[in-house]
Every structure is written in C-alpha cells, then in structure tokens.
Specification:
The chain is an alpha+beta fold. Helix content is 29%, strand content 19%. The longest helix is centred in the middle third of the chain and has 19 residues.
Length: 365
C-alpha cells in the first residue's frame, strides 16, 4: 500500500491494535480513504517519520517500508516478536521475508547450515534471534528496526527494550495500594483483550484450562455479546491431556467449545507435508513416542517449534512490489550476539502476501 502523499510504500504482516486512536490523532491532517490499520500506519509515517512512529505502534507486526524521498528501506518487528522477519545478503543481493522458504526461492540463496545455530537448537529446542538455521541469514530481533540504504552498511537498532522497561519499573514502583494494583491490572488486561477483539473475521481462542488462557477467555467472554469460540487440543496420554481442565472452564464461562484429540500417528502423518511447505522445523511429540535417549521433562508440554512464518513470494493489489531482493553495494554486518535473546516458539503463522523487489535503478544516487 502507498501513503496518501506517495512517499512511503509498505508491505505489512500483522495488525496495529491502536490504529483507531492514531487515526483520531491524525484525522485533522490526513484524508483517510478506508478503514484499515495499514493506511493509518502510513499516515503516521508521513506525519512523524518511520523511526518516531514505531514507539507509538501497539500491535503484532513485521513490515518493510520503502521511503521514496530518502531512498531507504526499513524493516521493523513488533516489541515481543510475535511476527517473524528474516533477512540476508548473498553477494550484492539483500533478501528479506517472514518465512525462510520465501528466501529459498531466490536463485542467489545459499542454504549452508549454521552449525552454531544447530547446536543451540539441539540444546534449547529453538533458535533465538538473531541466529538462524542457515548461515548468513538472520532474524530481526523483537523491538528492532533495520534501515538499508545505498550509502553504507545497516545495523539493527532497538526502538523498545524489555531491559529498559524493567529498570524504569524498579526505579519508579507502582505508588498505589494492593487493591489499586488489582484494579489497574484488571483495567489493562481488559483493554488489551478488547483491542485484540477488533477483527474482520470470526474470533476464537485456544483454551488449555490454565491460568493464562482461562483469564484471556474470561475477559473475551465478558466483553462479547455471543459465546466466544474456544478450542482445545487433547491427548490420549493422560499425563499430557489438558482437555478436561479446559472443558470445565468452557462450561463455566459458557463458550462455544471444540475439542480435538491428536495422536502420535496424526503428528507423524503431517510431517511430509510440513517439510515440503517449510512450515515446521521440529516437533516435540507426547509420550510414548519420545526416544528413550531423550525422555520428556516433568513439566514439558507437547509443542510444535516453527521455523518461521511467511511472506509468500507473490504480489497483491495492495502491494505493487513483486519480488524479494534488493541489489546494493552496501553489505550487512552480522548482528551482535551480545544483546539478550528472546525465546519465541509459539509465534502465529503470517498472513502477509507480498515481498519486495528494489532494482538497482531505485537506489541510484
């Protein structure tokens, strides 16, 4: 999508939850043509610039925006890293996508295994940013942006850091009473859930019966005029099965509840398809399919560890750019490994449907 002033062109994966508040703030200077969060984000770029807009965005997102005036490309990722974003340089070609298979389609992609990252994966069952399973391919860290131009190398920069938030909280503790803290937490949780219930498609929630999911579903149901749709994955192995707990919560809250029981055979059956589509990096299966050399931990849960989520290499009407590479003389320096890493094994699949090609002429000085 292009901004109203034609300066910015963006391709976005995700959602901006506070776009309505930003729209009200910008309405006196911008003539909005539709109701999308992407249009509001572009108007914010026009008003405040990309770097100054990022701290104002509340949402889950990964985006790439091309600035036609400064001739720079900016990649950015949300604070907690719900939406993934990969980038790489091979020769003089810069590639980016929100799924590795998007990069692999490019003829200059080199799929050499990063042995250091492989060792980390075998130890922790995930690969933290900025490392990637492929050498010379990196994940953009959560809360960071990456600016690329024809003038020099790019280095990821933070626009939000958890460490700073924690330090601020310790230096300025909550001044109210315990009851004030309870009421404030309730208000913030309700507001966060309410913002995320704004959707053009039917909403639902995964419900395990634990504290986190039960709280979210309870707050959803309290703010919904109809039964919330909830879903639970159950297992025949009782030591892993949370379906009975979720069933009790669903009945108590009055949700429209669905249970699906998965067997080790079901998990094995999807592996060929998952590998062919690049949608699964590894799978942790419930007992008794664990190999004897790797017994399950007492508090571990069955889970799928995704390699990525996707920006498929295809153009859409709202994204007039058509491939996933940019040739430039600037080389990217590998990100520093000293910055604290973030575990993200439960990111949602991407819904972005375009990648970007910036030909040499686009960056000619």
């Amino acid at each position: 999508m292009t901004s109203d002033g034609d300066r910015y062109v963006v391709t976005l994966n995700g959602e901006i939850y506070n776009f309505r508040e930003l729209r009200e703030e910008l309405a006196h200077k911008h003539n909005f043509r539709g109701t999308s969060d992407t249009e509001v984000m572009l108007a914010a770029f026009e008003e405040w610039g990309v770097e100054n807009t990022l701290p104002k965005l509340n949402g889950m997102f990964a985006f790439a925006v091309w600035d036609r005036v400064s001739r720079t490309l900016t990649l950015a990722r949300d604070r907690i890293g719900e939406k993934p974003l990969y980038y790489a340089t091979f020769g003089e070609t810069f590639l980016f996508a929100s799924e590795l298979k998007g990069l692999k389609r490019h003829p200059e992609f080199v799929g050499s295994i990063n042995r250091d990252a492989l060792a980390v994966y075998l130890r922790h069952n995930y690969i933290p940013a900025p490392q990637c399973i492929y050498r010379d391919v990196y994940k953009l860290r959560p809360g960071h942006f990456l600016r690329i131009s024809a003038q020099g190398a790019a280095t990821p920069q933070p626009y939000w850091e958890l460490r700073s938030v924690i330090q601020t909280g310790m230096a300025e503790p909550f001044p109210g009473s315990p009851q004030d803290a309870i009421e404030t937490l309730d208000y913030l949780l309700r507001a966060a859930v309410r913002r995320q219930m704004v959707s053009d498609v039917p909403l639902g929630a995964f419900l395990s019966g634990g504290i986190d999911s039960s709280t979210v579903v309870a707050l959803m149901q309290a703010q919904s005029s109809r039964p919330v749709r909830t879903f639970t994955i159950g297992f025949r192995e009782q030591q892993y099965d949370e379906a009975p707990h979720a069933r009790v919560v669903a009945q108590t809250l009055g949700t429209d509840h669905t249970e699906l029981y998965v067997t080790p055979g079901d998990a094995m059956a999807v592996i060929p398809t998952a590998i062919s589509t690049g949608s699964m990096r590894g799978c942790v299966l419930p007992s008794p399919t664990w190999p004897k050399a790797l017994p399950p931990q007492p508090h571990s849960e069955p889970s799928l560890a995704r390699m990525s989520a996707c920006w498929p290499p295809a153009a859409t009407a709202t994204a007039p750019l058509t491939a996933c590479s940019w040739r430039a003389s600037a080389r990217l320096a590998p990100p520093s490994r000293s910055t604290p890493c973030w575990p993200h094994t439960h990111t949602e699949p991407s819904r972005l449907t375009a990648t970007v090609k910036l030909p040499p002429a686009a960056i000619a000085t």
